[in-house]
Structure formats: structure tokens, C-alpha cells
Write a structure and sequence with these properties.
- The structure is a single chain.
- The protein is α+β, with helices and mostly antiparallel strands.
- The chain has one domain (3-65, 90-327): phage-related protein like domain (phage-related protein like fold), CATH 3.90.1690.10.
- Helices cover 25% and strands 29% of the residues.
- The protein is built from 8 helices and 17 strands.
- Strand 15 (293-299) and strand 16 (304-317) form a beta hairpin.
- It starts with a strand and ends in a 6-residue tail after the last strand.
- 30% of the residues are buried.
Length: 333
């Protein structure tokens, strides 16, 4: 693959790559670096469905049955005999990465009338990156909110926000964590609170009694993590606008009155024998830009140039038994 560098008239460095994709690929390197370092506020989709690169858009991935590496085997070897032979089973699971992409136009009028052309390009890139990530967040929570994609869906007998005798958030979550561990052998090590669920959790009398027995104080994420014996706690802080472009904003929370618990191996960027609840399978090969900014050629008919951001993803639940959801924590069942 031959790679050449050249400069656009507005002095933005672009790399031109020749590869197996059959077309010239212009990647705006400075803008791409800015986008890669940019994080849309409050999103946790890739925390739940962490990214695992794959080399094919569609293929099969290995699947190790839960408990295969927890088996009790006889290891005793009699003198003069061979050691016992053990094996493991492996299955396969199909995936298909879809392309999610958006583009932003910059017309001649924009170029000539904007005080700072760079800001137009930069804000356009941020806009389409936000919208791609928000679309992903919606897909993730549509998945985890479905009870068919978790081991167990719990509901509280007593609401966490009841005025008197409030539901015991500590007992509820601890029981859910323990039950999942007893079923799978793996204790969920990550929790995601919906925004409303977190607001109620930090005010719950049982939590306050555990953390602040002498009164006062507001629980932090680190305190919740230590109290519930998990590795990490996040809050789904994000909102998205369900209104159309140019209309009055109508904001909704991605995840509200619920808590998701799941097991995900820490620091594992590829699939392996360790089980995991879910992953984003991302097609990542040379010549296919993922969350990089492409500078598309000038369109003489539209008198505009375009920047485009795209990604190839498949959000895949790998083993639903490794997750639970506690729904409607402020609604006594």
C-alpha cells in the first residue's frame, strides 16, 4: 500500500491511501485525531459493549460454553500411567457488522462567509460523531432493556424512593449480584445505573445507613463500587433529542429507572476463553476508516465539499446469563 501526504488549500493535512478498497481514501488526520480524543458526554454504550476488532465484515466468532473452564477433573496420575486427557468444547456465533455513517456539507458560502472555516469543519465533525454515537447508545439500551437479553429481570418489592420503609437498594442489588454468580460462577463486576435510579440510590436510607452510619454525606461512584464489591460503576448520564432537526428539543434519557449488572473481563480487547456478557464487534482493517474523518472530493454540482465519519459495528450479546437488570426500582411491585 503506497501512502502519500499532501496539503489542501486551507492547509489541512490529508493522507491519501491506495489499498484494496478500490478507491482513494482521504483522511483528515488532524481532525481525526481530535475526533478520536473527543467523547460525547454521558454515553456508556462502549462500556457495556466494549470494542473487539474483527478482520471480516461478516464471519463466525468462537464461543466457549459457560463453565467449560471451571470443570472439576481428576488430576491424580498413578505411577507409570499417562496423565488424563482433557479437552474443551467450542462453538461459533455469527456476526455481521453494519456501516453507520453520516456526512456534513460545507458549501462555498460557508467557506467564504464563516469567520473561521476550521470551526465550521470541526463543529460539523463533532456533530456527526455525536449523532453516530447517540445512535449506538440507543441500540445498546434497546438491547439491554429487553428481558430476553439478560439472565434475570428483577423488580423491587418495595420502591427505593418510598417515603417510609423504602426498598433496601443494598439488599436488592447484592442479592441480584449473588444470584448471577451462583448461576454462572462469575460475579458481575460492572454496574450501570440509569440516571433516575442513581439519583434514588444515593438517597436511599439503606445505602446511607451503610456508608454514613453517623449521618451526612452523599455516596460517590467509588463508594458504591466498594460497597457492592464490583470493579466499576457508571451512570448513564446521557440524553438524546427525539425531536426533528430545527424543532424544539424533546429530551429523553437512554436509561432511566433501572440498573444493569454484567460480567466483562477487564482489559480484554479480544475474544478468548474468558466469558463476557457482550461486545461491539468492529470491522477494523486498513482502508476502512472507523471514526476517522474522511475529506470527500469537492462536488461541483452542489458547490460543496463534505466530511464524513463512519464505523462498522455489530453489538453482540455473547452470553446473556452473565447479566441481570433491575427494572422499575422506584415502582413497588
Amino acid at each position: 500500500m503506497e501512502t502519500k501526504a499532501y496539503t489542501l488549500e486551507n492547509d489541512i493535512r490529508v493522507w491519501k491511501k491506495y489499498d484494496a478498497t478500490g478507491r482513494d481514501l482521504h483522511v483528515d488526520v488532524p481532525m481525526s485525531q481530535a475526533i478520536m480524543n473527543y467523547r460525547t458526554e454521558g454515553l456508556v454504550g462502549e462500556f457495556i459493549f466494549s470494542v473487539v476488532p474483527v478482520s471480516k465484515q461478516t464471519n463466525l466468532i468462537p464461543f466457549f460454553p459457560l463453565g467449560e473452564f471451571l470443570r472439576k477433573e481428576s488430576c491424580e496420575r498413578a505411577p507409570g500411567t499417562e496423565a488424563n486427557i482433557v479437552r474443551f468444547n467450542v462453538g461459533t456465533m455469527a456476526y455481521a457488522c453494519k456501516n453507520y455513517a453520516l456526512r456534513f456539507p460545507m458549501t462555498i458560502e460557508d467557506r467564504e462567509n464563516a469567520d473561521e472555516v476550521w470551526q465550521v469543519r470541526q463543529n460539523g465533525a463533532y456533530l456527526i460523531t455525536d449523532l453516530i454515537r447517540i445512535s449506538k447508545e440507543v441500540r445498546v439500551f434497546n438491547t439491554v432493556n429487553s428481558t430476553s437479553n439478560v439472565s434475570t429481570a428483577f423488580v423491587p418489592a418495595s420502591a427505593w424512593n418510598a417515603a417510609a420503609n423504602a426498598g433496601n437498594a443494598y439488599i436488592h442489588l447484592t442479592n441480584a449480584l449473588n444470584q448471577t454468580q451462583d448461576i454462572t460462577g462469575y460475579r458481575p463486576n460492572k454496574l450501570v445505573f440509569g440516571k433516575t435510579a442513581w439519583r434514588t440510590f444515593i438517597q436511599n436510607s439503606a445505602i446511607a445507613g451503610k456508608l454514613f452510619p453517623h449521618g451526612g454525606g452523599v455516596p460517590t461512584l467509588d463508594q458504591a463500587r466498594a460497597l457492592l464489591d464490583v470493579d466499576e460503576v457508571r451512570v448513564a448520564d446521557g440524553y438524546y433529542n427525539t425531536g426533528a432537526e430545527g424543532q424544539t428539543a424533546s429530551l429523553s434519557k437512554f436509561f432511566d429507572d433501572a440498573v444493569l449488572g454484567f460480567y466483562q473481563p477487564t482489559g480484554q480487547g479480544q475474544l478468548g476463553p474468558k466469558p463476557r456478557y457482550a461486545a461491539t464487534l468492529r470491522w477494523s482493517v486498513p482502508g476502512i476508516p472507523n471514526m476517522a474523518v474522511e475529506a470527500l472530493p469537492y462536488d461541483a454540482y452542489k458547490k460543496a465539499e463534505f466530511i464524513e465519519v463512519g464505523v462498522y459495528d455489530d453489538e453482540k450479546v455473547l452470553d446473556k446469563k452473565l447479566a441481570f437488570i433491575f427494572k422499575g426500582v422506584n415502582s413497588a411491585q
